[in-house]
Design brief:
5 helices
């Protein structure tokens, strides 16, 4: 099955790279952004909240399962920045993502110090660094000039796990692009270190993708700015990468900030069970689409926002 958007009039809206990550004119209230990124005392893993996505809660993140690695896809760039807020001013439905990394070879012990790297497309289906790649359907142009494509770093970043194996990211719910379902890419690295605002060395132990419940994204894709991307989007059953399995297959547990208003944002949870002694880069494993021609080799440009630069600039972004 596929889902379809209503055709909407397209208004040219250009994303602005802001280190604070404050939302623009997409109709999302700042209060909703703050609520989505506020820490709560209870999580979906602990409470089994009825508001969490039902299909994901069947694979509770309390389980300890070795996750299956999948393709890294065609839009990976080396050298993502170490930062919690990866939005860079990109507009969309707020998503705070809590990822727990566990060692399946050691009684599900937390993997403290693991570097979790994520990257995903924006609300119209564009990836930073590849802004001239057509996402399919009809969407506003992210960049009319391909010469600056390599300078984009939005919606990419690392966080290093705490003593409980937990990392948190501030981002937005991704949009869609042909022929993929809504998803976020992830790699888990160990043995490296922070250097010059990024993460260097070590081993890639896991490469995978996170997925979103069809009913959730169906609602989100009717909201601005997602609605400006018209066309047919792929559901989970037809995705070339998602193989089912609920949480063990990468399906996020999603908890809405406000049940009646998806624009307020979501909290997402998942546990990654990895083997810290294994290596899996995901490169060349097939699926995920065809890399665009002229793809950049990928090092973040100097001056790109990191956690440190955002703090020194006195960012107005809400804290969690």
């Amino acid at each position: 099955m596929t889902g379809s958007h209503k055709n909407r009039s397209i208004t040219r809206r250009r994303a602005v790279a802001l280190t604070g990550g404050a939302l623009g004119a997409g109709g999302l209230a700042l209060a909703g952004y703050q609520a989505a990124f506020a820490d709560g005392t209870a999580t979906a893993e602990a409470t089994g909240s009825a508001s969490a996505t039902a299909s994901a809660s069947s694979g509770s993140s309390g389980q300890c399962v070795l996750m299956s690695s999948v393709t890294e896809g065609p839009y990976y760039l080396d050298g993502a920045l170490v930062r919690k807020d990866i939005t860079e001013g990109k507009d969309g439905v707020p998503l705070t993502l809590r990822i727990t990394v566990q060692d399946t070879t050691d009684s599900c012990a937390p993997v403290a110090g693991a570097a979790v790297e994520i990257w995903h497309c924006d609300a119209w289906g564009y990836y930073s660094g590849y802004t001239t790649a057509n996402p399919g359907g009809s969407a506003p142009a992210e960049s009319e000039d391909g010469s600056d494509a390599n300078d984009k770093t939005y919606l990419r970043g690392y966080q290093v796990a705490n003593a409980n194996g937990v990392v948190k990211f501030k981002t937005i719910v991704p949009g869609w692009y042909t022929p993929r379902a809504c998803h976020i890419h992830v790699k888990v690295h160990t043995g490296g270190q922070k250097e010059d605002g990024t993460y260097e060395g070590g081993t890639v132990n896991y490469t995978g993708q996170f997925f979103f419940d069809d009913d959730v994204v169906a609602d989100i894709f009717e909201i601005e700015p997602y609605a400006q991307h018209s066309g047919t989007w792929t559901k989970l059953d037809d995705d070339m990468v998602y193989e089912g399995g609920g949480a063990s297959g990468g399906l996020l547990t999603l908890e809405p900030v406000h049940k009646a208003n998806p624009a307020k944002g979501y909290k997402g949870y998942i546990t990654l069970g990895i083997d810290p002694d294994a290596e899996n880069t995901g490169a060349g494993s097939g699926g995920g689409g065809t890399p665009p021609s002229g793809a950049p080799t990928g090092t973040p440009p100097s001056g790109a926002p990191t956690d440190a630069s955002s703090a020194s600039a006195g960012s107005s972004a809400p804290s969690s």
